[in-house]
Amino acid sequence: MTDADDLRARTRALLQEHPPASTDRTAFLEARFDAGLAWVHYPVGLGGLGAPRALQAVVDDELAAAGAPDNDPRRIGIGLGMAAPTLLAYGSEEVKRRFLRPLWVGEEVWCQLFSEPGAGSDLAALGTRAVRDPETGDWIVDGQKVWTSSAHAARWAILIARTDPDVPKHRGITYFVCDMTDPGVEVRPLRQITGEAEFNEVFLTGVRIPDAHRLGEVGDGWRVAQTTLMNERVTIGGARVPREGGMIGKLAATWRERPELRTHEFHRRLLELWVDAEVARLTGERLRQQLAAGRPGPEGSAMKLGFARLNQAISGLEVELLGTEGLLYEDWTMRRPELVDFTGRDAGYRYLRSKGNSIEGGTTEVLLNIVAERVLGLPPEPRNDKDVAWKDLAR
User: Fold this and answer.
1) What is the mean pLDDT of residues 334-346?
2) What is the DSSP letter of 168?
3) What SS3 string covers 301-365?
4) Who contacts 251 (Cβ-Cβ below 8 Å, separation ≥6)?
5) Burial status of residue 45 (CB atoms within 10 A of its CB: 0-12, 13-18, 19 or more)
6) In this predicted model, which residue has the larger pLDDT, 76 or 54?
7) pTM, two decimal places
């Protein structure tokens, strides 16, 4: 069984054979994947060694100390945090070997085609259709998706579509991998309150997807999607940050560097948020330790819920502390960034962008229901559409 000492030895051997200072970045990352040091808990041949997930930190610490390049996880976060676990759990061996290596190395960016204009919070009500071509076995997809992060930069997408309208909404969905460069895929920017367009709407018109790119059984896409969604919420709300990292660090720095802005009331509110941020950080650490022993559970929804509320409170206090200076905004140029940079921008950007935290990755209202039902064990809300075919639902 692989242990910490074995992983250190493997990592040092990688560094000796591929010195980071003289090795091309992509070549180094490919060598790391092939050595099983990308995701140590993944199977051999798929970037891992079948080792305990908790031992990943051993590899990461050795590589960081040597100045080795990373795979720019913020840019490829959807692939790493959502697509990869789903591909591993439900993809065929051919699919896993085709997609996981370029995904982890960062050669191929992924996006998520889930939400629709009429199916955001009620995702299972989605109407994008996938119909099987009886001659080729391909699936023909038509519909519209919305709020798609990084669709303008993505090569591949994870997609859910309705394949059977005659059964209740949760049972007629199938999960696919979609090629974003295929004919019929149109990506349009959605300009946000920040002035930028990291989100997009995606129109699918007669898009052909081979059946080999289906994940899970036909009609079982909702169960497959739960793997994606649980991992998504852990990715958003459970990222590892140091003490006073993230947005609370920016607020604390402003407090220390600008004594003329201080008041007793601001001090009290800052201390409360600092404690809340530290509680969230430690709770995230505990969640990651639980993940090391198994699959993500509904606790990730609670973390994502807290992340949104905390970010909005911190950014609001930061703008308030800065007074009229907090009303300034550095640039309203329409751009299409590939990632969100909360800490590298000004207070105005943080304030505006954090408003989206309570929508993306599951709305606050949906997450409250999940926490109530799956964490606290409260009775579920009544549903009058449980046994109604999707085609008969009021729209």
Assistant:
1) 87
2) B
3) HHHHHHHHHHHHHHHHHHHHHHHHHHHCCCCCCCCCCCCCCCCCCCHHHHHHHHHHHHCCCCCHH
4) 270, 273, 314, 317, 318, 321
5) middle
6) 76
7) 0.89
Which residue has 């993944």 as its token pair?
A: 42
Rounded Cα distance, 126 and 163, in Å = 11
Exactly one of 232, 244, 257, 278 is catalytic; which is it? Answer: 232
Amino acid at 5: D
H helix runs in the chain, sequence order: 4-17, 25-34, 56-65, 77-78, 84-90, 93-105, 221-237, 246-257, 264-291, 299-322, 347-353, 364-370
Alpha carbons 127 and 173: distance in angstroms, whole number: 10
Task: Determine the pLDDT at residue 360.
Answer: 82
| Encoded tokens for 274 | 């600092």
Read off the pLDDT of residues 237-248 as tens digits, 9 standing for 90 and up.
556 778 898 899
Whole-number pLDDT of residue 341: 84
pLDDT digits (tens, 9 = 90+) for 176-187: 999 999 999 999
Phi, psi (5° rounding) for residue 273? -70, -35
- The rounded Cα 144 to chain-centroid distance in angstroms is 20
Look up residue 304 and give its two tokens.
Answer: 């994502």
Q: What is the pLDDT of residue 291?
A: 65
Catalytic (active site) residue 232: yes
In terms of pLDDT, which residue wins out, 239 or 130? 130
Residue 10, class by beta-carbon neighbours within 10 Å (0-12 exposed, 13-18 middle, 19+ buried)?
buried
Contacts of 241 (CB under 8 A, 6+ apart): 281, 284
What value does the CA radius of gyration of the chain take, rounded to a whole number of Å? Answer: 22
Alpha-carbon separation of residue 95 from 100, 177, 214, 273, 368 (angstroms): 8, 10, 9, 45, 35
d(CA 92, CA 8): 31
Q: What is the mean pLDDT of residues 345-350?
A: 92
Q: Which of 321, 329, 280, 278 is nearest to 302 (CA)?
A: 280
